[in-house]
């Protein structure tokens, strides 16, 4: 493994060295040719040729240094009207470029980069002349059709000399990001706290008792608190009796979203991932609107951990090099699950949905390992709601163990007709109900009677 890393590092250094070498040679090739021609003019005693070459070298030198200087004194700032939007929403973007040096820039072409799938209203490009201290502003509107964490920027600035001999490009330092929230399907009938229309399901193990659910009385035993004595029965019989309460119904749920990249291997992987995210966000919204607790754990990655808001500015001599020099996102090495604690809060669903807006497939734990990793922190009074794209013996066994240990479990199986029959069979052996979510409209058809 160490040898492979060393070879990869050497190849990267060699590639960068070759790129710098070619760039350097491309920049100075014509200088070398001109010097050879000048030497030949002196050798053959041709003063007119020598004067012409002097003028050419002066012209080329001025072109080179002016094109470098004009791009070196530019400051770029970007403002976004919003950074969190719904799918299909638009934001206004304003980018200002200022010439902070003491010399004018005869011409400059500006282009602000944005995702290709976004539609642009207005012009994200501008051709301008900038005097010392002058600034130019580009205003445009972007519409975001897809969920995700989308980068806007950097600004690409192009200028050159007055003679048209050289063009140079420079990228700005600032990059911004916009979170596009996932779709929320409004599930009017789904209720994880009620498995039958007659009323709530009682927990399989007595986690804690609900003082509002009186089930009977028993004889008093030493150590029973006074506030649990049933005074009416005690007065009627002349002996002390203690109240017995039913355990509380399971309320709310903890979403377990499997978003490991290896779990989605088919051609429709991206569609199934988005459906899984829609399912999780819809259930989170429903639980909060029902006044119940909700939380989430997932093996996906938060794209904000890979984002870069400020990057190094690059000055290059070709448009191809500009595209290569635009710095993308870094690579996160986090393996720990992404966790939103299970709580009852008026902003809990919003927090989960905002996390789901930024989530990307992870490379760490699979779903069974994820549950095992977070087992100790899972609240027993909340239903486990795994949202998974596959089911195997290991995962079914893990969910069965969770059910035997006192958890209520309801599985949401994502868009796999062939795999659903096997999944339903494995889970039926463990008395675990499973929903098959093949498309978004299936979420609207959920009801307590079917759970």
Walk me through the structure.
The protein is an alpha+beta fold and 451 residues long. The chain folds into 4 domains: 2-71, no CATH class; 73-180, Immunoglobulins (Immunoglobulin-like); 209-247, no CATH class; 253-299 and 337-450, von Willebrand factor, type A domain (Rossmann fold, 3-Layer(aba) Sandwich), CATH 3.40.50.410. Helices cover 33% and strands 27% of the residues. It is built from 10 helices and 22 strands. It has helices at residues 2-43, 47-72, 231-237, 269-289, 319-325, 348-358, 367-374, 393-404, 417-428, 441-444; strands spanning 74-80, 84-85, 90-99, 105-112, 119-122, 125-130, 135-143, 148-152, 155-160, 167-171, 176-180, 209-219, 241-247, 253-257, 294-298, 301-302, 315-316, 338-343, 359-360, 383-388, 410-414, 433-437. The strands form 6 sheets. The chain has a 6-stranded mixed β-sheet with strand order 18-15-14-20-21-22, sandwiched between helices. Strands 6-4-9-10-17 form a 5-stranded antiparallel β-sheet, with helices on both faces. Strands 1-3-7-5 form a 4-stranded antiparallel β-sheet. Helix 4 links the parallel strand 14 (253-257) and strand 15. Helix 1 (2-43) runs antiparallel to helix 2 and helix 4 (269-289) packs antiparallel against helix 6 (348-358). The longest helix has 42 residues, at 2-43. It is elongated, with a radius of gyration of 33 Å. The chain starts with a helix and ends in a 7-residue tail after the last helix. Mean pLDDT is 78; it is low at 1-24, 194-207 and 447-451.
């Amino acid at each position: 493994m160490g040898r492979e890393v060393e070879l990869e590092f050497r190849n990267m250094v060699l590639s960068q060295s070759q790129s710098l070498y070619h760039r350097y040679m491309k920049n100075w090739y014509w200088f070398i040719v001109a010097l050879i021609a000048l030497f030949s003019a002196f050798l053959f005693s041709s003063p007119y040729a020598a004067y012409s070459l002097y003028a050419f070298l002066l012209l080329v030198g001025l072109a080179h240094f002016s094109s470098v200087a004009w791009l070196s004194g530019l400051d770029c700032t970007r403002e976004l009207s919003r950074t969190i939007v719904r799918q299909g929403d638009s934001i206004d973007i304003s980018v200002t470029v200022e010439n902070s040096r003491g010399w004018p820039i005869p011409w400059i072409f500006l282009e602000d980069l944005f995702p290709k799938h976004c539609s642009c209203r207005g012009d994200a490009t501008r051709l301008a002349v900038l005097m010392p201290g002058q600034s130019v502003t580009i205003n445009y509107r972007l519409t975001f059709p897809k969920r995700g964490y989308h980068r806007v920027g950097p600004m690409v600035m192009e200028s050159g000399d007055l003679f048209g001999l050289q063009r140079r490009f420079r990228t700005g330092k600032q990059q911004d990001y916009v979170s596009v929230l996932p779709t929320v399907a409004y599930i009017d009938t789904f209720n994880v706290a009620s498995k039958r229309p007659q009323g709530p399901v009682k927990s399989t193990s007595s986690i804690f008792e609900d003082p509002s659910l009186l089930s009977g009385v028993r004889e008093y035993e030493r150590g029973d608190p006074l506030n649990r004595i049933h005074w009416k029965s005690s007065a009627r019989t002349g002996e002390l009796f203690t109240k017995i309460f039913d355990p509380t119904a399971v309320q709310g749920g903890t979403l377990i979203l499997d978003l490991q990249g290896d779990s989605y291997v088919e051609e429709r992987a991206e569609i199934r991932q988005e459906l899984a995210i829609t399912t999780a966000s819809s259930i989170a919204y429903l639980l909060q609107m029902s006044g119940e607790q909700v939380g989430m754990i997932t093996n996906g990655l938060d794209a904000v951990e890979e984002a870069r808001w400020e990057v190094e500015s690059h000055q290059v001599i070709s448009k191809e090099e500009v595209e290569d020099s635009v710095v993308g996102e870094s690579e996160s090495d986090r393996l720990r699950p992404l966790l939103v604690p299970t709580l009852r809060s008026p902003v809990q669903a919003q927090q989960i949905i905002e996390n789901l807006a930024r989530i990307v497939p992870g490379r760490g734990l699979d779903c069974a390992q994820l549950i095992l990793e977070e087992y100790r922190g899972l609240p027993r009074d909340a239903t486990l709601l795994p949202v998974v794209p596959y089911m195997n013996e290991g995962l079914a066994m893990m969910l069965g163990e969770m059910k035997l240990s006192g958890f209520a479990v309801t599985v949401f199986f994502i868009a796999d007709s062939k795999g659903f029959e096997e999944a339903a069979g494995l889970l039926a052996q463990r008395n675990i109900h499973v929903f098959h979510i093949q498309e978004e409209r299936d979420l609207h058809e959920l009801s307590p009677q079917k759970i």
